[in-house]
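Translate structure to sequence.
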């Protein structure tokens, strides 16, 4: 059964009121948005409110007869945040901790990410509350089919296009395509979902795209001088948290670019070796045993310790809220490149900014995934298959352009704080004094302005 929910104002949580950092991802996304909107004084208050709220929230509940013969009920969410710049786009996550607020946050980050990258999509995200570690492949296939069938016409090649995320893969995308195709026979349904297997319309380079985009963005940022005396990933020491699609391929591509991977982790813990780890051996060990932990010639570290190891580049590639107000002061990396969505909280952002540690924000640094998803969608519509070099070449152009745009936007804002302050006063806007922004705020400002411009050019209906 599908329930279409409207948005209500989130309550102030007790812990936030008590001075403890509020880790609700949706509250964080709203805080980030509100902060960024202060730097765009020309935006009308009603437009700001419209851009902040999701267009549509769908909650589905369905039963599945699982492998053990039991009937279990599952809850799934699909949030469409914005379709101003194109159809909704965003992954589907399977995880026991999925909540509606997490999906709402992730959907809004997709809107800003697509705008930063200048790909013609809006933002969306989905999730099913389930623990894939306790389910069989057949269970997961049935959950996927039932979820997609229940979403019905709320997804489509021109309305809302899913993709992989945590605990979903190319195989899951093949099931999504197949289910949707059964519901719409006789049509070219390949563009309804991206991240598909290459022999079912998937794009070459999509599997690696999130990590490759992260590498391209990091390389460009270093060339632009973001970190003193470090102008390349070649020779840099790298720590990667999370060893799935984003993390393990980031370790591979950074290593192939000449970096030394000194620590990696997954949900069961981490391993470290200051002389360097063999990313392929770690992957093989994870495939054989379920974890990177236990790889010979590596010291075991906890995920908390791993984040605070001295290194040049820290790549969080697992889940949200791992770099927080309570551990940001201990981070010893010189640059953070966010392959995951939402790994750094606003309190941590402030601390890292004050400490001079740049953070390449998720809505830029992990946007390679959605960018190659866009390429896949175009190939599906045109019935084409581009070779991998072409895909990677186009990704490089997009990542460099977006990285430059965000770095330039940061400089523009920070050089015009007095002007912005005067504009705010002219419009009678009250609030705290404007402070210099970090790269996340610069990316947000760029994205919000782009979405607002298109909203106004299209004209507010009717
Ligand atoms: P995945 O399921 O392939 O891998 C997730 C990895 O994180 C696994 O190795 C898991 O063991 C590890 N992990 C889970 N909990 C952890 C914890 N508490 N500490 C350390 N490691 C933990 O998922 P993925 O697709 O690689 O996604 C990872 C992150 O990248 C997510 O934030 C996702 O939203 C983001 N992302 C993914 C894509 C994509 O195309 N797959 C695109 C953009 C962003």
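Result:
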């Amino acid at each position: 059964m599908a329930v279409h929910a409207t948005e209500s104002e989130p309550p102030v949580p007790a812990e936030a009121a008590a001075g403890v950092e509020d880790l609700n991802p949706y509250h964080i996304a709203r805080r980030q948005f509100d902060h960024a909107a202060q730097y765009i004084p020309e935006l009308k208050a009603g437009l700001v409110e419209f851009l902040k709220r999701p267009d549509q929230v769908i909650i589905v509940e369905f039963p599945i007869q699982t492998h053990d013969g039991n009937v279990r009920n599952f809850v799934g969410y699909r949030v469409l945040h914005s379709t101003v710049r194109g159809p909704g786009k965003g992954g589907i996550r399977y995880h026991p901790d999925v909540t509606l607020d997490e999906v709402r946050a992730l959907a809004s980050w997709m809107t800003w990410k697509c705008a930063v990258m200048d790909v013609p999509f809006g933002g969306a995200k989905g999730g099913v509350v389930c623990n894939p570690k306790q389910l069989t492949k057949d269970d997961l296939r049935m959950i996927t089919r039932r979820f997609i069938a229940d979403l019905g016409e709320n997804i489509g090649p021109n309305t809302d296009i899913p993709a992989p995320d945590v605990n979903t893969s190319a195989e899951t995308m093949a099931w999504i395509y197949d289910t949707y195709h059964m519901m719409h026979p006789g049509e070219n349904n390949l563009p309804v979902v991206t991240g598909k297997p290459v022999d079912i319309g998937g794009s070459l380079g999509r599997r690696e795209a999130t990590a490759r985009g992260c590498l391209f963005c990091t390389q460009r940022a270093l060339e632009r001088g973001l970190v003193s005396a470090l102008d390349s990933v070649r020779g840099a020491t790298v720590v990667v948290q999370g060893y799935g699609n984003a993390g393990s391929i980031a370790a591979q591509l950074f290593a192939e670019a000449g970096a030394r991977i000194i620590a990696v982790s997954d949900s069961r813990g981490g391993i470290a070796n200051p002389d360097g780890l063999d990313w392929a051996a770690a992957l093989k060990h994870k495939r054989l045993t379920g974890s990177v932990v236990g790889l010979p010639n590596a010291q075991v570290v906890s995920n908390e310790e791993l984040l605070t190891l001295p290194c040049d580049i820290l790549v969080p590639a697992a889940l949200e809220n791992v770099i927080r107000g309570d551990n940001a002061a201990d981070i010893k990396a010189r640059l953070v490149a966010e392959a995951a969505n939402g790994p750094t909280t606003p309190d941590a952002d402030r601390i890292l900014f004050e400490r001079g540690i740049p953070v390449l924000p998720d809505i830029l640094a992990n946007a390679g995934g959605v960018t190659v998803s866009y390429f896949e969608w175009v190939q599906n519509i045109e019935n084409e298959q581009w070779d991998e070099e072409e895909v990677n070449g186009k990704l490089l152009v997009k990542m460099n352009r977006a990285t430059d745009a965000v770095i330039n936007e940061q400089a523009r804002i920070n050089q015009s704080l007095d002007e912005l302050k005067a504009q705010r006063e002219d419009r009678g806007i009250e609030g705290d004094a404007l402070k210099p922004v970090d790269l996340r705020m610069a990316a947000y400002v760029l994205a919000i302005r782009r979405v607002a411009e298109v909203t106004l050019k299209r004209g507010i209906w009717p």
